[in-house]
Amino acid sequence: MNFKEELKKRTEDAESVIRKYLPEEKGFARTMAEAMNYSMTAGGKRLRPILIRETYRLFGGEGELCEPFMAAMEMIHTHSLIHDDLPALDNDDYRRGRLTTHKVYGEAMGVLSGVALLNRAYEVMLTAFDLTEDKERVIKAMQIMAGKTGINGMLGGQSVDVENDGKPLRREMLDYIYKNKTSALIEASMMTGAVLAGASEAEIRTVEQAAGEIGLAFQIQDDILDVTSTQEELGKPIHSDEKNNKVTYVSLMGSAAAAGKVKELSDHAVELLAGLSRKNEFLELLVESLVSRRK
Protein backbone atom coordinates (compact mmCIF):
# COMPACT_ATOMS: atom_id res chain seq x y z
CA MET A 1 0.00 0.00 0.00
CA ASN A 2 1.24 3.47 -0.90
CA PHE A 3 0.23 5.23 2.31
CA LYS A 4 0.69 8.79 1.00
CA GLU A 5 -1.51 8.15 -2.03
CA GLU A 6 -4.17 6.44 0.07
CA LEU A 7 -4.11 9.25 2.63
CA LYS A 8 -4.58 11.79 -0.17
CA LYS A 9 -7.60 9.87 -1.49
CA ARG A 10 -9.17 9.62 1.94
CA THR A 11 -8.53 13.29 2.70
CA GLU A 12 -10.20 14.26 -0.58
CA ASP A 13 -13.12 11.97 0.26
CA ALA A 14 -13.51 13.60 3.70
CA GLU A 15 -13.31 17.05 2.10
CA SER A 16 -16.09 16.15 -0.33
CA VAL A 17 -18.30 14.82 2.47
CA ILE A 18 -17.75 17.92 4.62
CA ARG A 19 -18.66 20.33 1.80
CA LYS A 20 -22.02 18.55 1.27
CA TYR A 21 -23.16 19.64 4.72
CA LEU A 22 -21.97 23.26 4.84
CA PRO A 23 -24.60 26.00 5.28
CA GLU A 24 -25.72 28.03 2.27
CA GLU A 25 -24.37 31.58 2.13
CA LYS A 26 -27.63 33.44 1.69
CA GLY A 27 -30.18 35.58 3.53
CA PHE A 28 -29.68 37.98 6.41
CA ALA A 29 -27.34 35.53 8.20
CA ARG A 30 -25.10 35.23 5.14
CA THR A 31 -22.05 36.70 6.88
CA MET A 32 -22.23 34.08 9.61
CA ALA A 33 -22.47 31.31 7.00
CA GLU A 34 -19.47 32.80 5.19
CA ALA A 35 -17.45 32.88 8.42
CA MET A 36 -18.42 29.27 9.19
CA ASN A 37 -17.46 28.13 5.70
CA TYR A 38 -14.24 30.17 5.72
CA SER A 39 -13.04 28.12 8.66
CA MET A 40 -14.42 24.80 7.43
CA THR A 41 -12.81 25.08 3.98
CA ALA A 42 -9.38 26.15 5.24
CA GLY A 43 -7.99 22.67 4.71
CA GLY A 44 -6.35 20.71 7.49
CA LYS A 45 -5.60 17.02 7.98
CA ARG A 46 -9.26 15.96 8.31
CA LEU A 47 -7.92 13.33 10.69
CA ARG A 48 -11.10 12.92 12.73
CA PRO A 49 -13.50 12.38 9.80
CA ILE A 50 -11.00 9.94 8.28
CA LEU A 51 -10.84 8.04 11.58
CA ILE A 52 -14.64 7.77 11.60
CA ARG A 53 -14.72 6.32 8.08
CA GLU A 54 -11.77 3.96 8.64
CA THR A 55 -13.09 2.60 11.95
CA TYR A 56 -16.50 2.19 10.31
CA ARG A 57 -14.80 0.15 7.58
CA LEU A 58 -12.76 -1.79 10.15
CA PHE A 59 -15.99 -3.27 11.52
CA GLY A 60 -17.55 -3.90 8.12
CA GLY A 61 -19.52 -0.68 7.71
CA GLU A 62 -20.58 0.26 4.18
CA GLY A 63 -22.51 3.13 2.65
CA GLU A 64 -23.22 6.69 3.71
CA LEU A 65 -24.34 6.28 7.33
CA CYS A 66 -21.06 7.53 8.75
CA GLU A 67 -20.93 10.64 6.52
CA PRO A 68 -23.12 13.02 8.58
CA PHE A 69 -20.92 12.18 11.56
CA MET A 70 -17.76 12.84 9.55
CA ALA A 71 -18.97 16.34 8.67
CA ALA A 72 -20.32 16.98 12.17
CA MET A 73 -17.06 15.96 13.81
CA GLU A 74 -15.08 18.40 11.67
CA MET A 75 -17.58 21.14 12.57
CA ILE A 76 -17.14 20.43 16.29
CA HIS A 77 -13.36 20.41 15.90
CA THR A 78 -13.31 23.58 13.79
CA HIS A 79 -15.55 25.39 16.28
CA SER A 80 -12.95 24.65 18.96
CA LEU A 81 -10.15 26.02 16.76
CA ILE A 82 -12.04 29.25 16.04
CA HIS A 83 -12.56 29.81 19.74
CA ASP A 84 -8.99 28.78 20.65
CA ASP A 85 -7.67 31.49 18.34
CA LEU A 86 -9.76 34.31 19.86
CA PRO A 87 -8.04 37.16 21.76
CA ALA A 88 -9.59 35.92 25.02
CA LEU A 89 -7.79 32.58 24.62
CA ASP A 90 -4.64 32.03 22.50
CA ASN A 91 -4.95 35.27 20.46
CA ASP A 92 -3.47 33.70 17.31
CA ASP A 93 -3.50 35.42 13.92
CA TYR A 94 -2.95 32.38 11.70
CA ARG A 95 -4.51 28.93 11.44
CA ARG A 96 -4.03 26.34 8.69
CA GLY A 97 -1.80 28.77 6.82
CA ARG A 98 -4.15 31.74 6.65
CA LEU A 99 -5.67 34.44 8.84
CA THR A 100 -7.86 33.20 11.67
CA THR A 101 -11.61 33.71 11.52
CA HIS A 102 -11.71 36.58 14.00
CA LYS A 103 -8.97 38.43 12.08
CA VAL A 104 -11.10 38.32 8.92
CA TYR A 105 -14.64 38.64 10.29
CA GLY A 106 -14.11 40.31 13.66
CA GLU A 107 -14.15 38.98 17.18
CA ALA A 108 -17.94 38.93 17.60
CA MET A 109 -18.47 36.94 14.41
CA GLY A 110 -15.64 34.63 15.46
CA VAL A 111 -17.55 33.81 18.64
CA LEU A 112 -20.89 33.44 16.87
CA SER A 113 -19.64 31.39 13.93
CA GLY A 114 -17.93 28.98 16.31
CA VAL A 115 -21.15 28.48 18.28
CA ALA A 116 -23.11 28.14 15.04
CA LEU A 117 -20.77 25.38 13.84
CA LEU A 118 -21.21 23.48 17.10
CA ASN A 119 -24.99 23.65 16.69
CA ARG A 120 -24.77 22.82 12.98
CA ALA A 121 -22.95 19.62 13.91
CA TYR A 122 -26.03 18.32 15.72
CA GLU A 123 -28.35 19.40 12.92
CA VAL A 124 -26.17 17.37 10.54
CA MET A 125 -25.96 14.30 12.78
CA LEU A 126 -29.76 14.19 12.99
CA THR A 127 -29.92 13.62 9.22
CA ALA A 128 -28.39 10.17 9.81
CA PHE A 129 -31.81 8.93 10.95
CA ASP A 130 -32.90 9.14 7.30
CA LEU A 131 -30.06 6.82 6.22
CA THR A 132 -30.78 3.71 8.30
CA GLU A 133 -33.52 1.61 9.86
CA ASP A 134 -31.29 0.98 12.87
CA LYS A 135 -32.08 4.14 14.82
CA GLU A 136 -30.41 2.80 17.99
CA ARG A 137 -26.96 3.01 16.40
CA VAL A 138 -27.53 6.66 15.46
CA ILE A 139 -28.75 7.48 18.97
CA LYS A 140 -25.76 5.77 20.57
CA ALA A 141 -23.33 7.51 18.22
CA MET A 142 -24.89 10.89 19.00
CA GLN A 143 -24.65 10.19 22.73
CA ILE A 144 -20.94 9.49 22.34
CA MET A 145 -20.39 12.64 20.28
CA ALA A 146 -22.27 14.80 22.79
CA GLY A 147 -20.54 13.28 25.81
CA LYS A 148 -17.03 13.57 24.39
CA THR A 149 -17.66 17.18 23.30
CA GLY A 150 -19.13 18.61 26.52
CA ILE A 151 -18.03 19.28 30.09
CA ASN A 152 -16.79 15.70 30.50
CA GLY A 153 -14.83 15.89 27.27
CA MET A 154 -13.30 18.51 24.99
CA LEU A 155 -14.95 21.59 26.50
CA GLY A 156 -14.15 20.45 30.03
CA GLY A 157 -10.51 20.04 29.01
CA GLN A 158 -10.47 23.47 27.39
CA SER A 159 -11.95 25.08 30.51
CA VAL A 160 -9.24 23.61 32.74
CA ASP A 161 -6.61 24.65 30.21
CA VAL A 162 -7.86 28.26 30.19
CA GLU A 163 -8.26 28.38 33.97
CA ASN A 164 -4.66 27.27 34.47
CA ASP A 165 -3.10 29.23 31.61
CA GLY A 166 0.41 30.36 32.55
CA LYS A 167 0.35 28.50 35.87
CA PRO A 168 2.64 25.63 36.87
CA LEU A 169 0.91 22.29 36.26
CA ARG A 170 1.36 18.82 37.68
CA ARG A 171 1.66 16.04 35.11
CA GLU A 172 -1.69 14.69 36.35
CA MET A 173 -3.52 17.89 35.41
CA LEU A 174 -1.69 18.20 32.08
CA ASP A 175 -2.80 14.65 31.23
CA TYR A 176 -6.39 15.58 32.16
CA ILE A 177 -6.28 18.57 29.82
CA TYR A 178 -4.79 16.58 26.95
CA LYS A 179 -7.06 13.56 27.40
CA ASN A 180 -10.12 15.79 27.32
CA LYS A 181 -9.16 18.70 25.08
CA THR A 182 -7.62 16.50 22.36
CA SER A 183 -8.13 12.77 22.99
CA ALA A 184 -11.88 13.06 23.58
CA LEU A 185 -12.68 13.93 19.95
CA ILE A 186 -10.34 11.22 18.66
CA GLU A 187 -12.14 8.77 20.93
CA ALA A 188 -15.53 10.05 19.74
CA SER A 189 -14.47 9.66 16.11
CA MET A 190 -13.31 6.08 16.37
CA MET A 191 -16.07 4.97 18.77
CA THR A 192 -18.71 6.51 16.48
CA GLY A 193 -17.35 4.63 13.47
CA ALA A 194 -17.39 1.39 15.47
CA VAL A 195 -20.91 1.93 16.83
CA LEU A 196 -22.40 2.78 13.43
CA ALA A 197 -20.89 -0.39 11.96
CA GLY A 198 -22.32 -2.58 14.75
CA ALA A 199 -19.21 -3.36 16.80
CA SER A 200 -19.64 -5.18 20.11
CA GLU A 201 -19.35 -3.41 23.48
CA ALA A 202 -15.97 -5.06 24.09
CA GLU A 203 -14.71 -3.92 20.70
CA ILE A 204 -15.95 -0.37 21.33
CA ARG A 205 -14.08 -0.27 24.67
CA THR A 206 -10.85 -1.43 22.96
CA VAL A 207 -11.30 1.22 20.29
CA GLU A 208 -11.85 3.87 22.98
CA GLN A 209 -8.60 2.91 24.75
CA ALA A 210 -6.60 2.90 21.51
CA ALA A 211 -8.12 6.24 20.46
CA GLY A 212 -7.29 7.79 23.83
CA GLU A 213 -3.65 6.90 23.36
CA ILE A 214 -3.69 8.14 19.76
CA GLY A 215 -5.13 11.47 20.94
CA LEU A 216 -2.55 11.88 23.69
CA ALA A 217 0.26 11.04 21.24
CA PHE A 218 -1.17 13.54 18.76
CA GLN A 219 -1.20 16.36 21.32
CA ILE A 220 2.30 15.63 22.58
CA GLN A 221 3.51 15.68 18.97
CA ASP A 222 1.88 19.12 18.67
CA ASP A 223 3.99 20.22 21.65
CA ILE A 224 7.11 18.97 19.90
CA LEU A 225 6.25 20.64 16.58
CA ASP A 226 5.67 23.95 18.34
CA VAL A 227 9.39 24.07 19.12
CA THR A 228 10.87 22.10 16.20
CA SER A 229 8.76 23.03 13.16
CA THR A 230 8.43 26.26 11.14
CA GLN A 231 5.37 28.47 10.68
CA GLU A 232 5.38 27.56 6.96
CA GLU A 233 5.27 23.82 7.75
CA LEU A 234 2.81 24.09 10.60
CA GLY A 235 0.46 26.68 9.09
CA LYS A 236 0.21 28.54 12.41
CA PRO A 237 2.61 30.44 14.68
CA ILE A 238 5.37 28.45 16.37
CA HIS A 239 6.66 28.92 19.93
CA SER A 240 3.12 29.93 20.94
CA ASP A 241 3.28 27.62 23.98
CA GLU A 242 6.38 29.44 25.24
CA LYS A 243 4.84 32.83 24.44
CA ASN A 244 1.74 31.93 26.44
CA ASN A 245 3.77 30.36 29.29
CA LYS A 246 2.05 27.02 28.72
CA VAL A 247 3.26 23.89 30.46
CA THR A 248 3.65 21.09 27.89
CA TYR A 249 5.23 17.66 27.70
CA VAL A 250 8.26 19.33 26.10
CA SER A 251 8.67 21.84 28.94
CA LEU A 252 8.21 19.07 31.53
CA MET A 253 10.43 16.35 30.06
CA GLY A 254 12.26 17.74 27.01
CA SER A 255 11.77 17.07 23.30
CA ALA A 256 13.56 13.71 23.19
CA ALA A 257 11.60 12.17 26.05
CA ALA A 258 8.36 13.63 24.70
CA ALA A 259 9.09 12.03 21.30
CA GLY A 260 9.69 8.73 23.07
CA LYS A 261 6.29 9.03 24.74
CA VAL A 262 4.62 9.66 21.37
CA LYS A 263 6.15 6.46 19.99
CA GLU A 264 5.22 4.45 23.07
CA LEU A 265 1.60 5.58 22.92
CA SER A 266 1.32 5.10 19.15
CA ASP A 267 2.87 1.62 19.29
CA HIS A 268 0.47 0.53 22.02
CA ALA A 269 -2.53 1.93 20.13
CA VAL A 270 -1.50 -0.07 17.04
CA GLU A 271 -1.06 -3.15 19.24
CA LEU A 272 -4.59 -2.74 20.61
CA LEU A 273 -6.07 -2.36 17.14
CA ALA A 274 -4.05 -5.31 15.85
CA GLY A 275 -5.52 -7.42 18.66
CA LEU A 276 -9.03 -7.05 17.22
CA SER A 277 -10.38 -9.80 15.00
CA ARG A 278 -10.80 -7.22 12.19
CA LYS A 279 -8.02 -5.59 10.18
CA ASN A 280 -7.60 -2.22 8.47
CA GLU A 281 -4.04 -1.78 7.26
CA PHE A 282 -4.51 1.89 6.39
CA LEU A 283 -5.83 2.70 9.86
CA GLU A 284 -2.75 1.14 11.48
CA LEU A 285 -0.44 3.05 9.12
CA LEU A 286 -2.31 6.27 9.86
CA VAL A 287 -1.72 5.86 13.59
CA GLU A 288 1.97 5.11 13.02
CA SER A 289 2.30 8.22 10.84
CA LEU A 290 1.48 10.44 13.81
CA VAL A 291 4.98 9.81 15.14
CA SER A 292 6.73 11.32 12.13
CA ARG A 293 4.31 14.07 11.07
CA ARG A 294 5.72 17.58 10.58
CA LYS A 295 2.43 19.50 10.66
From TrEMBL:
Keyword DNA damage (UniProt): no
Pfam family, one: polyprenyl_synt
CDD domains: Trans_IPPS_HT
Ranges in coiled-coil conformation: none
InterPro entries: Isoprenoid_synthase_dom_sf, Polyprenyl_synt, Polyprenyl_synt_CS, Prenyl_diphosphate_synthase
Alphabetized PROSITE patterns for the sequence: POLYPRENYL_SYNTHASE_1, POLYPRENYL_SYNTHASE_2
Cofactor: Mg(2+)
Keywords in alphabetical order: Isoprene biosynthesis, Magnesium, Metal-binding, Transferase
Family assignment from sequence similarity: Belongs to the FPP/GGPP synthase family.
PANTHER family documented for this protein: FARNESYL DIPHOSPHATE SYNTHASE
Stated name of the protein: Polyprenyl synthetase family protein
